[in-house]
Design brief:
The chain is mainly β and 477 residues long. It folds into 3 domains: 3-175, Sandwich (Immunoglobulin-like), CATH 2.60.40.420; 185-338, Immunoglobulin-like (Sandwich), CATH 2.60.40.420; 346-476, Sandwich (Immunoglobulin-like), CATH 2.60.40. Helices cover 7% and strands 45% of the residues. The protein contains 5 helices and 33 strands. It has helices spanning 3-15, 24-30, 117-120, 305-309, 463-467, and strands at 33-34, 38-40, 55-67, 70-77, 86-89, 94-100, 108-111, 129-130, 135-140, 146-152, 169-175, 185-203, 206-218, 229-231, 236-243, 250-253, 259-264, 267-275, 277-280, 285-291, 297-302, 313-318, 358-366, 375-378, 389-391, 396-403, 409-413, 418-423, 426-433, 435-438, 443-449, 456-460, 471-476. The strands form 7 sheets. The protein has a 6-stranded mixed β-sheet, with no helix packed on it. A 6-stranded mixed β-sheet has the order 24-23-26-31-28-29, with no helix packed on it. A 5-stranded mixed β-sheet has the order 2-9-6-3-4. The chain starts with a helix and ends with a strand. Mean pLDDT is 90; it is low at 1-23, 25-30 and 43-47.
């Protein structure tokens, strides 16, 4: 594609209102569609001739056999679930060709990367959709180092065969200059729930629109359907966990073993701590080392019996051990973000002190509507009515997230990381994330530096909440 044609494509994209807030359903139906060969760069410019591609992703339908007699048809990348692990070096530019073999416009979001708005892969920020049968080249410089991931960022509404309900996800590893901890090998495990259906569900004392699933898996296999993870006594394994579910939070355990958590959302924690239970909200990642020091045959799986019964688990088999895999629930849930943080800085110790540039955001449920689905608001307004938040480059801003509902929310900020400052009134510091689980009727404070100009999307990563109003755009002044 020539530079003139690429520039014309980008001007067309900008002319279609990518820099204005609008109804998300209307937006994604009318957003500019990328022509074959279009290129996205951090500066939204194209160059000719196109350099050699580093990675290729093909979006298409595949039949995934989760277990004998249990096959699901889904959209995925390169015919596999999860998609290929994309390994990159921090600071080294990459070119990624994406080919859309599906029947609907698509795009890919590079979750957790601090890149430009246009290649970030969110239509609300200015990223063009890829037409059915079309091709788009993403070009960006990956940073920061750590476990990131990539996934579709389309809307689904009540069509549960679209968006993150599908198998469109995969690990993206930005290699650090030095590896965290010492280990013998690494294993990638992505959590996903399959065959969704809408229903009303009880969450605590409140009824909410929810999703029921027939199956749940690590990668592409249900518990007992795939090969076990075979280990040796004394082996140190670095597990990369990703919750790629559209809506479901997950608690995990491995009987007789502990997880030493090294990183959350790919960001090294200041205080690596050992826990029996891992908690992953939607879109969260955990890097943890497990020392294999309890020979036997065990189930690494969900704490919920019903979730293991529909497949969320994998067998860990020690060398020279056999027999039925064992499950033993931990005595209590010892997970807490604060375990991995540092004590608060002096200026954050006073819970009554109001920091500068404080942005309070209250999240509430409105519903159900006539279609039986709840709507969500930020400070009393849904995305369609919300003006963008305005920030100035170089300044720090404190979010005060207040959950006024009985549903938990995985809160995600595009193109930036934020530092947790207060969790349910408990001050902490130096814990950096891009997604945080905001519990029912709870509050969290998080601070971010406005150091990546361009539109940035803020939203709940629970697909059903995002589609029905729970998001807002942030703009630099």
């Amino acid at each position: 594609m020539t530079s003139r044609n690429a520039d014309h494509t980008l001007k067309t994209i900008q002319s279609k209102g990518f820099n204005k807030p609008m109804n998300r359903r209307h937006f994604l139906k009318t957003a500019g569609v990328a022509a074959a060969g279009a290129t996205l760069t951090d500066a939204a410019r194209a160059s000719a001739p196109l350099p050699k591609t580093d990675f290729s992703l093909h979006i298409g339908e595949a039949a995934i056999e989760l277990a004998p007699g249990k096959t699901v048809k889904t959209l995925c990348y390169n015919g596999q679930v999860p998609g290929p692990v994309l390994r990159m070096r921090e600071g080294v530019p990459v070119n990624i060709d994406v080919f859309n073999g599906s029947a609907n416009p698509e795009l890919v979001h590079w979750h957790g990367l601090h890149i430009g708005s246009v290649p970030d892969g969110a239509a609300e920020e200015g990223s063009p959709m890829i037409a059915p049968g079309g091709h788009l080249r993403y070009n960006f410089t990956p940073r920061p180092a750590g476990t990131r991931w990539y996934h579709t960022h389309t809307m689904a509404m009540s069509d549960l065969s679209r968006a993150t309900y599908t198998g469109q996800y995969g690990f993206l590893m930005v290699e650090p200059k030095s590896q965290p901890g010492s280990y013998d090998r690494e294993i990638f495990l992505a959590i996903h729930h399959w065959e969704p259906s809408l229903m009303r569900m009880q969450e605590g004392m409140e009824e909410c629109t929810g999703i029921a699933y027939q199956y749940a898996s690590f990668n592409d296999k249900l518990l007992h359907a795939g090969e076990p993870i075979r280990v040796r006594p004394g082996e140190r394994i670095l597990f990369h966990f990703l919750n790629a579910s559209a809506t479901e939070d997950v608690l995990l355990a491995l009987p007789g073993h502990r997880f030493t958590v090294l990183a959350l959302d790919g960001n090294p924690v200041p205080n690596p701590a050992s826990v029996e239970v891992l908690s992953l909200s939607v879109a969260e990642r955990i890097d943890a080392i497990v020392e294999m020091n309890a020979p036997g045959v065990w189930i690494l799986g969900s704490l919920k019996d019903q979730e293991r019964e529909i497949g969320l688990g994998i067998v860990i088999e020690y060398a020279n051990r056999s027999g039925e895999a064992q499950w033993r629930a931990p005595k209590f849930n010892d997970w807490a973000y604060s375990l991995f943080a540092k004590p608060p800085k002096p200026e954050d110790a006073d819970i009554d002190a109001a920091p500068e540039n404080l942005i309070t955001m209250v999240f509430e449920k409105v519903g159900p509507q006539q279609d039986g689905i709840d709507r969500w608001t930020i400070n009393g307004k849904s995305y369609d009515q919300l003006e963008p938040l305005r920030v100035r480059q170089g300044q720090r801003y404190r979010f005060r997230f207040v959950n006024a509902s009985g549903c938990a929310h995985p809160i995600h900020l595009h193109r930036h990381s934020f530092e947790l400052k207060r969790i349910a009134q408990v001050p902490v510091s130096d814990l950096w994330k891009d997604t945080v689980n905001l519990g029912r009727y709870n509050s969290i404070e998080a601070e971010f530096l406005a150091n990546n100009p361009g539109p940035s999307l803020f939203h709940c990563h629970q697909q059903l909440h995002m589609d029905y109003g729970f998001m807002q755009l942030i703009r630099y002044i």
